[in-house]
Design a protein that fits this description.
alpha/beta, Aspartate Aminotransferase, domain 2, 41% helix, Aspartate Aminotransferase, domain 1, globular, single chain
Length: 480
């Protein structure tokens, strides 16, 4: 492909993307294909000879879109959003064209220095103290792994990486029972082990029971175990569970433990001052993660990992063979090698899309979207609560709530010989097959519930009306 062909196909791809965004409301949200259906349309063997781009692009249009769940659809109300605001998509095109490997300052000075600035912009936007510095990790899972590794090394006197964990005290990490599964995976990868992730029960507000936390730490010390850190939850995935950040960080300080706040989804809402009470006390945490690629509009991958003492993170993760050392003239005090702040050595140019995003929409534009999502989700919850055959199981936490279908009368679940869990799972599948909206399920206090979360960048008020109709109409059709 020469430059002339590249220019043509790059334009063609941009036109396709613009058409795709415009047509999204007309498509089912979730892919309506069976397992293996897309794979059967793809050649079994790679081609020996070059193929024409016209053929390749036509196959893309014929095969791929029908097999995609449309995360940018305005009625995507499942999981958490994974947004790609148009301005961020343009930045990704530019970053992809340069295809830089941004592991060291010298391999991409502009990428590194822009990342420093964009993390600082985000710090200001969510009103964290100036002492916090940060880095863009790929996902919150990686940021949490970095935090768990840091708490492990700190507790072991920085000897775990050097000597291994054999013969060392057993390290313990604490988190609530409602934290994300990425916490579990982080302790696996860090060599701490699932049995040493102590799950603390929550109170009636779905917050970690601080008294039980204190008792667990004390008991572990008495048993000769080594408490290392606490993961604090702000906006848990299932129901938005949120710990008392100030109280948990106070325990961490008193016990000499490392504290990490997982606010991957909810952290973006902290650009709105009225929501910051949800993580009051966060300034006392050792590290925090929030994902601009969830609710702020940056495309995957872009996870902001803030740390109060960067030296601890770098001491845990830095490795400097000669081929990774930077030898440049002049003062190196302002030089940062972000590969020393992450598990990954190779790094993408993530800061560019944040720069485009925050300038194209401004903080007030981003705030208005988040405020709308919260208000519209709460209104939908109120409408469903007003229906006699629905119940709100967990009330809205920002734009997230959960509900169940509980039909009354002779055609209720007893008449159909179904339990409510089975009925609601059947309802969920029927809603997603209908295609107007996309929802997912979770478990809450032993019950299967349907969760709803708003956050798609271009969603509108009328999309919530469609959601109400789709939920109610589909539910009632099940027992007619």
């Amino acid at each position: 492909m020469d430059s002339k062909d590249f220019r043509h196909w790059a334009h063609r791809a941009s036109e396709w993307a613009a058409d795709y965004y415009e047509s999204l409301p007309d498509h089912p949200v979730r892919a309506q294909v069976a397992p293996g259906e897309i794979g059967a349309l793809i050649d079994a063997e790679p081609p020996e000879s070059p193929q024409e781009m016209e053929t390749i692009f036509a196959d893309f249009e014929r095969i791929v879109p029908q097999g995609m769940t449309h995360w940018q659809h305005p009625r995507f109300f499942a999981y958490f959003p994974s947004n790609a605001a148009p301005a961020a998509v343009v930045a990704e095109q530019l970053a992809g064209a340069m295809a830089a490997q941004c592991m060291l300052w010298q391999t991409s000075p502009a990428a590194t220095e822009l990342e420093v600035k964009m993390v600082e912009w985000l710090r200001q936007a969510v009103d964290l103290p100036e002492s916090f510095k940060g880095v863009f990790q790929d996902t919150a899972s990686s940021a949490t792994l970095c935090a768990v590794l840091t708490m492990r090394e700190r507790a072991l006197g920085w000897q775990g990486n050097r000597n291994g964990l054999s013969g060392k005290p057993v390290v313990r990490v604490y988190a609530s029972t409602r934290t994300h599964s990425s916490i579990d995976k982080a302790v696996w990868i860090a060599g701490i082990g699932q049995d040493n992730l102590v799950k603390i029960p929550t109170d009636e507000k779905l917050a970690m029971d601080v008294a039980v936390l204190r008792a667990a730490i004390r008991r572990d010390r008495e048993d000769g175990l080594l408490p290392a850190g606490i993961v604090v939850c702000v906006g848990g995935t299932s129901t938005g569970a949120t710990d008392d950040v100030a109280a948990v960080c106070q325990v961490a300080r008193e016990e000499g433990l490392y504290s990490h706040v997982d606010a991957a989804w909810a952290g973006s809402a902290m650009i709105c001052p009225e929501f910051r009470h949800l993580w009051a006390g966060v300034e006392h945490a050792d590290s925090i993660v929030l994902n601009p690629h969830k609710w702020l509009g940056a495309s995957m991958e872009c996870s902001a990992h803030f740390v109060r003492e960067p030296e601890m993170l770098v001491r845990t993760l830095s490795i400097q063979p000669e081929y990774l050392k930077t030898h440049v003239k002049g003062d190196q005090d302002g030089m940062v090698n972000f590969s020393e702040w992450s598990v990954q050595l190779g790094r993408r140019f993530r800061a560019l899309k944040v720069w485009f995003l925050m300038r194209a929409y401004g903080l007030e534009g981003l705030r208005s979207r988040i405020r709308n999502h919260v208000a519209w989700a709460r209104k939908l919850a109120e409408r469903l609560a007003g229906e006699s055959d629905f119940e709100i199981v967990t009330p809205p936490m920002l734009s997230l709530f959960s509900f169940r279908y509980v039909p009354k009368g002779p055609k209720g679940p007893e008449g159909l010989d179904l339990d409510l869990d089975a009925l609601n799972l059947r309802l969920l599948n029927a809603i997603n097959d209908d295609g107007r909206i996309y929802l997912t399920q979770t478990e809450h206090d032993g019950k299967l519930v349907i969760r709803f979360v708003a956050g798609q960048f271009e969603t509108r008020a009328q999309d919530f009306d469609v959601a109400f109709d789709a939920i109610c109409e589909t539910a009632r059709a099940l027992i007619e």
